[in-house]
Task: structure prediction
Amino acid sequence: MTVSAVATYDNANVGTGKTITVVYTLDGADAAKYAAPTNTVVTTGVITKATTPAAPATIFSFDGANANAGKLMGATTAMEYSLDGGSNWIPVETNDPALPVASINDTDDIKVRVKASSNTEEGAIQTIDITKATKPSLTGNIASAFGGIPGTAYLISYNGTKWDDAWADADGKISISKGTWSVKVKSTGTVLESDVQTNVVSS
Result:
């Protein structure tokens, strides 16, 4: 004859003073001749939180390809992010969420971690380093056939009516009207757009 015991917690929640019930059973040819020990109930059980989850490996880009610009790629609803240095955390409500780009800055960066649960502490923090482009320092007038800023790194606007103060890519020669212009380096990768240089007057 054998005696077996199975101990069961009342629930799986983290805590102390947990109730554990031990149930005894008898087995074997002579089991019917004996009485099983009385079940035991104790209230000294302890369940601790699981190991802290590792930091995520999400990806962010201001100008990401495949319509991913401004999205926190790889983030899931099990995670949360912070844009103020970790003072406040925002739960991820959909996978690969679009972040409020206007709230991102080069001081607080982007922080991401797995959210705490009833049985798990908050995860280790991933920090996505955000830097800021250098403000342009153009001198003199911009030629009327504008093409003096190399590459596609700049945006340009002016205070007339042509673009209604919108920003346009300075990606080649473009015709501009005489007026006071503003120039800035646009956001790319994890680099924020620069501060604006103003009073650039076309000839």
